[in-house]
Amino acid sequence: MKDxxxxxxxxxxxxxxxxxxxxxxxxxxxxMQKPQQVIDAIVDVYTNYNSNIHRGTHHLSxxxxxxxxxxxxxxxxxxxxxxxxxxxFTRGTTESINLVANTFGDAFLSKGDEVIISEMEHHSNIVxxxxxxxxxxxxxxxxxxxxxxxxxxxxxYSMLNxxxxxxxxxxxxxxxxxxxxxxEIVSAAHIEGVPVLIDGAQAVHHFPVDVVDLDxxxxxxSGHKLxxxxxxxxxxxxxxxxxxxxxxxxxxxxxxxxxxxxTTFNELPFKFEAGTPNFTGTIGLGAAIDYLTGYEWDKIxxxxxxxxxxxxxxxxxxxxxxxxxxxxxRSSVISFLxxxxxxxxxxxxxxxxxxxxxxxHHCAQPVMTRFDIPGTVRVSFAIYNTKEDVDKLVEGVxxxxxxxx
Length: 405
Hints:
Layout: E1 17-18, E2 21-22, E3 24-25, H1 36-49, H2 59-79, E4 87-90, H3 93-108, E5 114-118, H4 127-136, E6 139-143, H5 153-159, E7 164-170, H6 182-191, E8 196-199, H7 211-214, E9 218-222, E10 233-237, H8 239-244, E11 255-258, E12 263-265, H9 279-292, H10 297-316, E13 321-324, E14 333-338, H11 343-352, E15 355-356, E16 358-360, H12 365-371, E17 376-380, H13 387-404
Parallel strand pairs: 3-15, 5-6, 5-7, 7-8, 8-9
Antiparallel strand pairs: 1-2, 4-10, 9-10, 11-12, 13-14, 14-17, 16-17
């Protein structure tokens, strides 16, 4: 297994300077940097076997098809799905959720039916349901969270009723870092016969995800937040639901036969993969999974937990710094404000010393509304970050606080 203490050596972008300073990249919840192994895999496709997949009879098409479908199996194993055809390739988490909202929503939801989401959701797990609400007259119910950023489960349990048709919640909050108790959420929903969709965009790279153990009905995540390329993502769905759901987009690949009188649709997973897929990005995602699984999960989790603990302690020692999201069970995200310094000002000034952070509402405006703030400074960690990165961040925050007085 690879040594996590030297992971940074695999990421060429981290060797560059920004504004004349060595880059400290702490914006991993937005997108992760790519190891050389992923970059090489993408270059290899375009250099050696670029060709459209599945229907070609020539050598390049066959090689590319095998590499593409090998990634589907890698993802099946990565999240422990029961079947490879339960893995649907999309452009990312957002498209995966929209796919469910449009297909499951149109097939199984009617006026007055209820969908439960949470107050800490990313906009991609809010807006698709609001669009469905406008289109079909469904009702959105929202699980609140407490001052620590933990879902109030008693409120959730009280929401479940005979009108509830779907629960859609995040595994890890992108704004607060809260790791939600997904097994309990799924179990409670299933007692009422309600399926559950999980937004796993902030989870799959921090700890192992087992969809069979979680018993969720749908699980969505993105490649670019898994050390992989942009423009590719995954929707896992239980076979029974995917077979019942209609196609979302029409075109090539998702059909068995087409005539002007009738079209018959393809079997899983191709029913949901209309058109030429991002096969290069998908193969790159396979390389990213190979890369990540080259480390032991226990070591990844211990390393990131230690880094989060160190950063939390160091930042908490800064007078005037307030953290948002203090749940007992958290992943590698810290959101904060310092005195009355606007988060954009803090982010711009940190960038001057080469420290990259995210500022604003993080596509989670209801979270900011809950705390009555315009946004936060968010730092988020990956396996290539170090305690030295944290020290540079803290040094920068202290200097900026002193500048503002």
